[in-house]
């Protein structure tokens, strides 16, 4: 297979663009950092502008002049993070200093209670408006009771024209009323002075102040060395801070607003425009849910049009690309506040689909809802089963993304984040379809408290050699998996718009999880594909921009957009299986109506099949479209397959914390497969018996399997053997150590073969040590004819470099880990030298590391010699 051949020979494409912290450093120092980035096999870089003292000013241009000239010499590409502050949207201060009227604007309400009957009474209103409030309307809404905050949907009296000199005057019939004052303001939201994502003119300020200024300076590089711009977590910003659950229907909350949104809602609601706005905060009768849906629907369409659509179009017109990510944390990807309202709509303007994982959001083993990370305690299930799948799915169904899905990764995990966790996070993303990476981050300052770890850190990071190998591994696997057609067994509907007016709607990650834990893959697709012509039905399968799905899974919900229901009714009649996933939480309120109001088509309700989450994998598997069939299923095994022109590539990753996976598999009718260890760039043939091919994957380890046309010299690859026996390496160990930054190992400890190997940074040893421990031992071996040998290291932290009989054998970065060592062995005595390098946590004790469990330092279990026949 072509991708296997190219990877084996070191011919890979570029898939890594790390952040480089920019602080106005000397250009010579920047050049040295570029050297280290290239040393990792990386040929792109994204300049993190946030810390720079003169973004889009003289020093910035001086630095960028140098970097782009160097990029041309080095055959590198450069991306620029598109603002002077985090998050994207500050417009390099222009909205504060030049165009304050175009900054974020919010819809707000204040209210008080009044009673009738009365004639020519008044209420002082102007104090409600604040210093900058612009009155939109005044409404008197009947209160049906005093036990709830609800108001009546009928009998609303518009008093707007009765506003005069700061007072509103009114006559009221008998009864209790709530007087609502609706107004627009730029005060009291979350991001004053930031871009209004739903206002085209406001977004144009970001373009003119950042994008166009870079084009003015560097047009000759655009589309060549200048690759494009990166947006970092733009947000609606209608409330302060990071409440991940900010949504319509919450009292005392300002809401995103613009003149374009007013026009859209007026066109939809007509004369009910003002009265409907009340329902954005309070229950207002049976129309409440539909009103809230319509507001979110129109508002997020404007995010797509005004923000990402406008930025993406500008970039395309100037031969560069627009990339980045939004805030997805704890299901905020369809929320207000720090969210963006609708993940897929915001992504439509971008040329790659983007997500990020930072702050310990993903930690091996924590797959349930509650998991404590730096900024919250939810949602482990989303981070494991939803986050990356959103990104890869958006890439699969949008042709301009060219199947490219990006993840900003490793950031602010702290110096406790060693190579094994980085490797685990890399595989976690790769096996979910992420194939572009922004490692976070390179910094030219040390120590730098800003979101460690930093990969080179001016030569202070002891694990830089291991990180270099990880980057080459990451690029190698991404180069393979980025090619071809992803094989999905289902399309799961994105719950984003269904949750806007149904907070109890099932989150899409629940059916995704049920499928993934049964080794069935899927994409997540938005309802928009059924309304905008992207979706078709072909021979009983759903096709979205050419990507085919054997079935559709709707997460259990109360409402569904009308066009989605109509399309799926037609599709089901054409033979497409449509399932509604149910559990106890949603089972009593399934499919009660259309999101916009009204009833769902009867033929849709007749066509869909309700199935429990527990039985969903069986229903999908029965369709027979899975390319890999397993004899036994393990909930910790992840699978990603891509069909290429000359065969199928499959990645398997064991995400179990401690359980090894032993199973048999089949890929089509293949009689022989090739297993590829991309870490060591080593491959071997795997025979397929009548029962299938036997596969064994240690916890935290991954492999790639190829089925298809293989090179003519395939026979030269070794044949996979079976593990015949394991021989513990029982030796006395002499341990020396070398503090980081020194050249010489000094004798430290001796351990007999029978005593447990300790945590060398633990009690009784040296908790402050940073550097490398060297273990010297030996074993005696009588080599067996026809056998091959591997060395397994069951437990090491963090990076292990192995020498056998004086020859360097391997560098391992995941544990348990193994390496093939036959060629280094000899009959009789064999000398074993293992160097284990720590992280900087023992010296830095940084705040980010407080939320990460730190494994025992050194080699804490005896190695094992494995014999294969």
Question: What do these coordinates show?
Answer:
The chain is α+β, with helices and mostly antiparallel strands. Helices cover 24% and strands 30% of the residues. The protein has 21 helices and 47 strands. β15, α13 and β16 form a beta-alpha-beta unit.
In short:
Helices cover 24% and strands 30% of the residues. It has 869 residues and is α+β, with helices and mostly antiparallel strands. The two termini are 27 Å apart.
Features:
47 strands; globular; six-stranded antiparallel beta sheet; single chain; 869 residues
Output the radius of gyration.
30 Å
- Unreliable stretches (pLDDT < 50, length at least 5) are none
Structural class: alpha+beta
In percent, how helical is the residue content?
Answer: 10-25%
Beta-strand percentage?
A: 25-35%
Count the helices. How many? 21
Calculate the terminal CA-CA distance, rounded to whole Å.
27 Å
What about the largest sheet?
A: 6 strands, antiparallel
Strands, count: 47
**Averaging pLDDT over every residue, what do you get?**
96
Give the overall shape. globular
Itemize the secondary structure elements and their pairings.
Layout: H1 2-8, E1 19-21, H2 27-39, E2 44-48, H3 58-74, E3 77-81, H4 94-97, E4 105-124, H5 126-129, E5 134-142, E6 157-158, E7 163-164, E8 167-185, H6 200-218, E9 226-232, E10 255-257, H7 259-269, H8 273-277, H9 288-317, E11 321-325, H10 343-347, E12 353-358, E13 370-373, E14 376-378, H11 380-385, H12 387-396, E15 405-411, H13 419-430, E16 436-439, H14 464-481, E17 485-486, E18 491-493, H15 496-499, H16 509-516, E19 523-525, H17 528-531, E20 535-538, E21 541-544, E22 547-549, E23 552-555, E24 559-560, H18 562-573, E25 578-582, E26 593-594, H19 602-607, E27 609-612, H20 616-621, E28 628-630, E29 637-644, E30 647-654, E31 661-667, E32 672-677, E33 682-687, E34 693-697, E35 702-708, E36 723-728, E37 733-739, E38 746-751, E39 771-781, E40 788-793, E41 796-797, E42 799-804, E43 807-812, E44 817-820, E45 828-837, H21 841-844, E46 858-859, E47 864-868
Helix pairs in contact: 6-9, 7-9, 13-14
